[in-house]
Structures are given as C-alpha cells and as structure tokens.
Amino acid sequence: MKAIEIRKMSKEELDKRLSELKDELFKLRFQQTINQLDNPMRISAVKKDIARIKTVQRDIELHGAES
C-alpha cells in the first residue's frame, strides 16, 4: 500500500484498514510462533503499512484534512 493511496482514504476508512492490519499482524505472529508461516516478509510489510497509516492519521490530526 502506497502513501498516496492512504492519503486518499477517509478517516473512517483509515480506522477500518488499521484495525484490519492489526488483526492480520496478530494472526501472522501467531502463525510464526507455531511454525506455519509461509511468508515471513509479510510481517514487516504489514508493520510498515500500519506505520504509514498512523503517520497519515497524525498528519491529518496536526494539519487538518487539507494537507
């Protein structure tokens, strides 16, 4: 997911996507613990997506929706 795509989302969409990603990260970590994880790089990709969404949310909080 690109930052440009994230910036086009509404606040509600960002919140929904963030909760989906957090749930996916939990499931991936659980799979890793029981050695059933197929793609370990997916964990870092999900973490980066979560960070991007949080960054955009913080930017909107500080500067408003116009930024």
Structure, described:
With 67 residues, this protein is an all-alpha fold. It has a single domain (3-63), classed as Helix Hairpins (Orthogonal Bundle). The chain contains three helices and no strands. α2 runs antiparallel to α3. The longest helix is centred in the N-terminal third of the chain and has 23 residues, at 11-33.
**Proportion of beta-strand residues:** under 5%
Distance N to C terminus: 19 Å
Overall, the morphology is elongated
Largest sheet: none
Short description:
This protein is an all-alpha fold. It contains three helices and no strands.
Task: List its salient traits.
mainly alpha; Helix Hairpins
Which helices and strands appear, and what pairs or packs with what?
Blueprint (H helix, E strand, L loop, with lengths): L2 H5 L3 H23 L7 H23 L4
